[in-house]
Amino acid sequence: MKTTLYIKKSIRERVKIIAIKKKRTVSSVVAELLSKLIEKESPKKQFTYTSVKYQESDPEDEFEYLHVTFSQIQYEVFLDARKLFKSSVSRLLFMAMEALNQSSVSLEDSYRFNTYTFNKKATNKTIKLIQTWGIP
Questions:
Q1: CA torsion angle for 112, 114, 117, 118 (degrees, to 10)?
Q2: Which residue has better confidence, 47 or 17?
Q3: Which of 2, 77, 124, 135 is most buried, by CB atoms within 10 Å?
Q4: Calpha distance 94→79 (Å, rounded)
Q5: pTM to 2 decimal places
Q6: Fold observed for domain 2-110
Q7: What gap in Å lies between CA 88 and CA 106, rounded to an integer?
Q8: Coil, helix or strand for 68?
């Protein structure tokens, strides 16, 4: 699936540098960054009823388009992550790059997931949502 992200020029350039260093495509680096962010942050995520958040504008940094290609499974996972995190996919990439800068995410270990589940349990007047990313 081909898609386009609208991101800060500085982020786009950093993703390209990582791709060159790792001898990988930009799309595969973006997919791995997003996957790592989801893997690390989704267990902490609480469901909230807020609107989708986008990247903050920065007068010192231009925005550019980044064209990427994801597999069908990756595309669906990232769209679901968008809903879970209430953030645009471009903002998720920004968050992943920030986590990479803080060394809380590493591209060295190549664990990738393509399975996830959402389960709903209702008891009395309470609804419990359970999310599982990766192999349960």
A1: 90
A2: 17
A3: 77
A4: 16
A5: 0.68
A6: Arc Repressor Mutant (1.10.1220)
A7: 22
A8: strand
For the chain, domain boundaries: 2-110
C-beta atoms surrounding 80 within 10 Å? 16
Q: What SS3 class is residue 52?
A: coil
> What is the pLDDT confidence band of residue 110, given thresholds at 50, 70 and 90?
very low
Spatial CB neighbours of 93, under 8 Å, sequence gap ≥ 6:
5, 7, 11, 15, 30, 33, 34
- Residue 17, exposed/middle/buried by CB under 10 A (0-12, 13-18, 19+)? exposed
pLDDT in tens, 34-87: 888 887 776 666 656 677 777 777 777 788 899 999 988 888 888 888 888 888
